[in-house]
Structure formats: C-alpha cells, structure tokens
UniProtKB/TrEMBL annotation:
<comment type="function">
    <text>Catalyzes the removal of elemental sulfur and selenium atoms from L-cysteine, L-cystine, L-selenocysteine, and L-selenocystine to produce L-alanine.</text>
</comment>
<dbReference type="GO" id="GO:0031071">
    <property type="term" value="F:cysteine desulfurase activity"/>
</dbReference>
<comment type="similarity">
    <text>Belongs to the class-V pyridoxal-phosphate-dependent aminotransferase family. Csd subfamily.</text>
</comment>
<dbReference type="InterPro" id="IPR000192">
    <property type="entry name" value="Aminotrans_V_dom"/>
</dbReference>
<feature type="domain" description="Aminotransferase class V">
    <location>
        <begin position="24"/>
        <end position="394"/>
    </location>
</feature>
<dbReference type="InterPro" id="IPR015421">
    <property type="entry name" value="PyrdxlP-dep_Trfase_major"/>
</dbReference>
<dbReference type="Pfam" id="PF00266">
    <property type="entry name" value="Aminotran_5"/>
</dbReference>
<dbReference type="InterPro" id="IPR020578">
    <property type="entry name" value="Aminotrans_V_PyrdxlP_BS"/>
</dbReference>
<dbReference type="InterPro" id="IPR015424">
    <property type="entry name" value="PyrdxlP-dep_Trfase"/>
</dbReference>
<protein>
    <recommendedName>
        <fullName>Cysteine desulfurase</fullName>
        <ecNumber>2.8.1.7</ecNumber>
    </recommendedName>
</protein>
<dbReference type="GO" id="GO:0006534">
    <property type="term" value="P:cysteine metabolic process"/>
</dbReference>
<dbReference type="InterPro" id="IPR010970">
    <property type="entry name" value="Cys_dSase_SufS"/>
</dbReference>
<keyword id="KW-0663">Pyridoxal phosphate</keyword>
<dbReference type="InterPro" id="IPR015422">
    <property type="entry name" value="PyrdxlP-dep_Trfase_small"/>
</dbReference>
<keyword id="KW-0456">Lyase</keyword>
<keyword id="KW-0808">Transferase</keyword>
<dbReference type="GO" id="GO:0030170">
    <property type="term" value="F:pyridoxal phosphate binding"/>
</dbReference>
Length: 406
C-alpha cells in the first residue's frame, strides 16, 4: 500500500509555510528531506550511545561499533555488494570520486586515457583532471546529442589499450537522463582492462542497485540525497581492487601496525576509513535504507515517474517552455527554461516567493549548459513525498513568472 499522506506525515519539515505559502519542496536532487525515523536514529545515537567506534572495549563503544557495522550490512544488501567490507563510509559522492581518482594515481602514466561523459557533475570531472595533472594522462569526453543522449558509437572509438578509467554517472543531475551504464560497462569490459566507476548520486535514491549484476568496479553515492543526513556517503569497490590499491587518507583506524620505520594497513573496510567516522550519520544512513525498503523501491520509482510524466506534460501545455534532454528516458528531474523571458534565477526567485523550492543555475554541470548555450536552467526534482497538486502549483508559478517577466 502506497499512502502518500502517511509518508508525508513522516517528514514534519514539509508541514510549514515559506513566504506565507505552504512549502512545495522540489529540490530533491540537491538534497532530500529526512524522515522522522532517520532523525530519531541520529538523535538517539547522540543521546544514548555517543562513543567512538572500533576502539574502546567499553559498552557504549561496542554498541556504537555494532550499530555502525549493522548499517554497513544494510547498505551491502541495499546495493547487493558481495561483502560488507566492500562498503566504505565516506562524506559523500565527491569524497568517493576523489578517493578513487587518488588511489589510482600509480596505475596511470603519460598518455593513458580517462573517459568521462559530457553529462558529468563537476565532482566527476575535476578529480579526473587532477589525476591527469599528476600523471600526464588525458581526459576524453563522450559527446551528447541535442537530446542529451550519450553518443555510444563515438564512445566505442575511444576504447583502446590506453583506456585506464571509465567514469560516468548513472543518472544526470542536471537533466535527469538515465544513462545506459550496463551497455557502457559491457563495451568497456569487452575492449579494455579499464577501471569502471559509476557515480550513483542520482540513482541510489531512485532505483534498485545491484553492483554485482552491474559489474562496475566502483559505485559511489551520497546519503543526503536518499533521506539520510548530510556528510554521509558510500564508496563501493570490488574486494580485489580495494585490496590491491593503496590507502587514501592516513591516520587512526586505518593501520594494522604503525612505527617510525613504517606502517602496515588494516584490512578492508578500515584501510579506507581513516580517522573518526561520522558514526551517528552512518547509522542514520542505515535507517534511511530501512525507510526506502519499507516504502518499497518499486513504489518509489512508480510514484516519481508518474510525477515526472505529469510535470512534463503540464509544463509543455504552456507556451514557450523548453525542457532539456530526452523526455522518454528520465528519472526524477525536469530541467527547463522560459523561452525569451528572464533568466532561470529570476524564475526561481518568483517561485520561492510562492513557497516553491526549485534549483536554478548550472547545477554543477557547466559543460552541459555550455553545450545548450545557456547559463542555467530551472530544475524541479522529485522525491517520494511529492504530490501531484504540488506540480499544479509549480506550473501555476511558472505561468505567473512568465507573465511577470515578459
Ligand atoms: N554527482 C552527481 C550526479 C550529483 O548529483 C552530485 C550532487 N549534486 C554529486 C555528484 C556530488 O554529490 P555530493 O555533493 O553529495 O558530494
């Protein structure tokens, strides 16, 4: 049973007025709201457990460790990793991608190639540019067509023995396009020995993820976009790869032995978890997974797709709306502009006065904006608690913006 009012009742933040109007929160691709169960888990950790993990033998420390490891196992199941130690807690997608690009440094040399796509978030561009600077490797970019679809025939021509990394997002945060990662992975495996990295920041909140079936080497995502606290995230990596590659941060927790003559490293996952982790956040991420599974991933996807379809249809009924990206193959995001009137941020400000929260600007994807020759878009993005009448309010707000700005 999918009961939207019951779901909304778990998000008290939604029940407020912004600028005198009921809040319509449509900025979920930036960050989602957190259900009571997640907030309670976080609160309870600090009120009842707060202790450092993996260290003390005292009761609270053991409890904190057990809870965090339980959360790790929940996430393991959530993405169907083979082992719980392949699940590394991070601060988020950005940290995960920086970690991977850093630990691959020794694997690349001058003129090797790293393939990304035109649809990447800056956090899946800049870490690879830094890796190129460190190693002399070159970045190659899979082009898109005017619908934002990746040009896989050109991708095929990029693949060679020089290809060392292929890193693409599963879902574009700017356009909502779902990329054919299975196809990209299969073609990469067939033609190269490259490491395959999937940025799952916009797919983990919306889809059932099976990293074994997907057969990527790394899959990274952020907790805060999937109902968990900010400052949480996951890096999944295949066991043999994480075992072979060097650590990222050095410090406490990640060592087996440490002396001035040298250090040996702790086994996975701790080798990649230096320092005191975000214990409360990591435990709350497990509660967010529980929330998603309880609502049901199929229910979430069905509801969000229906919202998206409705939003696209209603917006296109207006004159002068340009929606970016292929309409058929999208999830959770509609990115648009009002043709000939104002700039995206003007529209965003008018919507905000009406209590409607959307994102405007380049969405950390400047190359996509350059491709479409625009400064930015208005982006409405959906989560499980959004309602159809909120889309009606968005569309009314857009009409008002059209009148005010023309
Ligand atoms: N990749 C994608 C596709 C994203 O949408 C985002 C967040 N907007 C990121 C990476 C970066 O995530 P975070 O800021 O949580 O590290």
């Amino acid at each position: 049973m999918f009961d939207i009012q019951e779901i909304r009742s778990q998000f008290s933040i939604l029940d407020q007025k912004v600028n005198g109007k009921p809040l319509v929160y449509l900025d979920n691709a930036a960050t989602s709201q957190k259900p009571d169960s997640v907030l309670k888990t976080w609160d309870q950790y600090y009120k009842e457990i707060n202790a450092n993990v993996h260290r003390g033998i005292h009761t609270l420390s053991q409890l904190a460790t057990e809870e965090m490891e339980l959360s790790r196992r929940k996430i393991q199941k959530f993405i169907n990793a083979k082992h719980d130690f392949e699940v590394i807690f991070t601060k988020g997608t950005t940290e995960g991608l920086n970690l991977i690009s850093y630990i691959l440094t020794q694997k690349l040399k001058k003129d090797d190639e790293i393939i990304i796509s035109y649809l990447e978030h800056h956090s899946n561009i800049v870490p690879w540019q830094l890796l190129c600077e460190r190693t002399g490797a070159k970045l190659r970019v899979i082009p898109i067509d005017e619908n934002g679809i990746l040009q896989l025939d050109i991708f095929d021509t990029f693949l060679s023995e020089k290809t060392k990394v292929v890193s693409v997002n599963h879902v574009s945060n700017a356009l909502g396009i779902v990329n054919p990662v299975e196809e990209i992975i299969a073609r990469t495996r067939k033609n190269t020995d490259a490491y395959i990295v999937i940025d799952g920041a916009q797919s983990a909140p919306h889809f059932t993820i099976d990293v074994q079936e997907m057969d990527c080497d790394f899959y990274v995502f952020s907790g805060h976009k999937m109902y968990a606290p900010m400052g949480t995230g996951i890096l999944y990596g295949k066991q043999h790869i994480l075992e072979e590659l060097p650590p990222f941060h050095g410090g406490g927790e990640m060592i087996a032995t440490c002396s001035f003559d040298g250090t040996t490293y702790a086994p996975l996952p701790f080798k990649y978890e230096a320092g005191t982790p975000n214990v409360g956040g990591n435990i709350a991420l497990g509660a967010a997974v529980d929330f998603i599974l309880k609502v049901g991933q199929e229910n979430i996807q069905r509801h969000e797709n229906a919202l998206l379809e409705y939003a696209q249809r209603k917006l296109l009924e207006l004159d002068g709306i340009k929606i970016y990206g292929e309409k058929a193959n999208r999830t959770g995001v509609v990115s648009f502009n009002l043709e000939g009137v104002g700039i995206a941020s003007d529209v965003g400000m008018i919507l905000d006065k009406l209590g409607i929260a959307v994102r405007t600007g380049h969405h950390c994807t400047q190359p996509i904006m350059d491709f479409f020759n625009i400064a930015g878009t208005v982006r409405a993005s959906f989560a499980v608690y959004n309602e159809f009448h909120e889309i009606d309010l968005l569309v009314e707000g857009v009409q008002k913006a059209q009148r005010m700005l023309s």
